[in-house]
Structure formats: C-alpha cells, structure tokens
Write a structure and sequence with these properties.
single chain; about 300 residues; alpha+beta; Glucose Permease (Domain IIA); three-stranded antiparallel β-sheet; 6 helices; 11 strands; about 45% helix; about 15% strand
Length: about 300
C-alpha cells in the first residue's frame, strides 16, 4: 500500500509513441541482433588482415635493407674484381713484352752464334738473376737426389712440378723417346762428311707430335741455321737436350716442361737442311744430348722398351 501511494505521488513520465514506431523498434532490434555477430566476425578478419599486412610491410622493409646491403657488397666486389682484372692484364702485358724481348734476344744470339755450342753458352750467359737463382736451387735439389743414390720415382707423377723430378745423370734407362719412328742415324756413325754423328735421327710420321724426353727449362725455341726449328732444354747438371727438324714448336722461352709434355709437331716432310741433303723426304727428328757443351751418346738414357719400339 505504501509503495502504491509513492508511485501515485511520483508517476513515471509518460512515453508518447505510436504503435507502428514500437513495432519498428522491435524489428530494428531483431535485425541488429542478427547482423552484429556477422559484423563482429568480419571485423576480426579485417583486423587479422591488417596485422598480416603490417607484418608483410615489415618483412618487405627488412628484405629491402638486406638487398641494399647485398648490392653494396656486390658493387664492392665488382670494383675489386675490376682492379684484379686490370692488374692481371697489366702483368700479362708485361710478361708478353718480356717474352717478346727474350725472343728477340734469343734470335739475335742465334744469328751471332756459329755453332750449337756457342749458342748454348750465349743463352746461358744471358739468363737473368731470377732464372739463375731458380736453376741454382734446382741444381742443389738434383745434387741432393743424386747423393741419395736412388731417384725418387714418385716425383715423376707430379705434373705440377717446377724443377726436374730426378737428376738427369740418374735418369739413365728411364727416358721415353720424344717420337715414335725408325732410327736412320745413330750416335757416332759416319756422317758422310768425314765426321761422326753427334746425335740420333728418327724418321717420324707426318704431323707427328713431339714430347719432351726429360724435365727441363726451354732456353731456345726457334730456327737455327741448317737445323730448321730447334728446341733446347736445360735438363740441369750441365746437360742440354736438343731437338731439331720440327715444323712448329709449341712451348716458349723460360717455360719449364715435364717429361712427356707435348712440345712440338713434325711437318709433312724433311725440315732441316741436313735431312734434305741426305735425300730423306719424310719428317726426321734430330736428337742430341750435351754435357757441358760436349755431345754425348743418348743411348744409355732411353728406356729399354723405348729402344725396342723405335727399332721396330
């Protein structure tokens, strides 16, 4: 009763609303109740997409920074490589110029020399300090190998060696012939001019490949008097190996060649005046060994199977 009295004294404000508006409000509330969950789900998806977009932008920025660093490093490496190439080309030009000068010097010495002995002496005297030091070091190594009493055959398997694998004097019975063919002149035989042969001559096939019979430094490669193309190898220990009668030489002055390495190619016919004078029409390779400028018999140096093969 007391509550009713209080309500009666303080009545709630009246709401003036039409029935149609109330119905519309109810409908709107029902529609919002149905739409809001879907809008909330779409909002969450959009928020996740935005977060992924932010992450991707951060990743792109990091990749851009990494790419910029890589480009900087690449530019630095490219500049360094360019400097290396420039330096290499400069050194190559210097080497080519030095080789040209050495060829001219050797050609001049060949014109001045009256015989092979003079040519070898002049060539050895013209060695520069670096070459002399290298030869002296190799000679010391050879002396050590010779004093051991037994050659180190394993050293022959190293194709990258820059000095003789074994001392030339200790290589008797081990050297391969530089070409396959038949011997037509032997060391010590009459040469038909009142003297004796200072080397051996082997009839080779046209275009045959010539290989180095021993390790050694190229001290001369070019034409010389009636020998045609002449190749002289310093085998160390005062020994020189001479090859003549080729059409083309494929090694350069100062180069170190190893046993079995291709050094020249025979032509289609006799190249030297000596071979032509003897009436030989096929290519002939002339081989001569010298010790301190004096020709020596190369026979003891050839491997047994090589000697048998050349006679066949």
């Amino acid at each position: 009763l007391a509550a009713l009295q209080r309500i009666g004294r303080q009545a709630p404000p009246g709401l003036l609303i039409r029935a149609e508006d109330a119905l519309q409000s109810v409908r709107s509330a029902m529609m919002l109740g149905a739409v809001l969950p879907e809008m909330r789900q779409q909002t969450e998806v959009l928020a996740a997409d935005l977060a992924e977009l932010v992450r991707l932008r951060q990743q792109i920025a990091a990749e851009r920074d990494r790419l910029a660093r890589d480009l900087f490093v690449l530019a630095d490496e490219r500049q360094r490589l360019s400097l290396f190439i420039e330096e290499r080309q400069k050194r190559l030009a210097e080497v080519e110029q030095a080789l040209t000068d050495e060829r001219q010097r050797a050609a001049e010495l060949a014109r001045q020399a009256e015989n092979l002995n003079q040519l070898i002496v002049k060539l050895e005297r013209g060695l520069d300090t670096a070459s002399r030091a290298a030869r002296a070091a190799a000679r010391s190594s050879e002396d050590g190998k010779a004093s051991s009493g037994r050659p180190d055959l394993a050293a022959l398997k190293d194709p990258g060696r820059l000095s003789p694998a074994i001392a030339f004097a200790a290589a008797k019975g081990m050297l391969p012939l530089p070409v396959n063919g038949a011997r037509i002149k032997e060391f010590g035989a009459a040469d038909g001019l009142g003297g004796t042969e200072k080397g051996v001559s082997i009839a080779a096939r046209p275009g045959g490949q010539i290989t180095a019979p021993c390790d050694g430094w190229v001290v001369y490669a070019g034409p010389f008097r009636n020998y045609g193309q002449l190749l002289i190898l310093n085998a160390g220990g005062g020994y020189h190996v001479l090859l003549a009668g080729m059409e083309r030489i494929s090694v350069d002055l100062g180069q170190f060649v190893v046993t079995g390495e291709p050094v020249a190619v025979m032509g289609d016919g006799a190249q030297s005046a000596v071979a032509k004078a003897g009436g030989v029409s096929q290519p002939v390779l002339y081989i001569e060994f010298r010790k301190d400028g004096v020709p020596v018999d190369p026979g003891p140096w050839w491997a047994v199977n090589e000697g048998q093969k050349v006679r066949g």
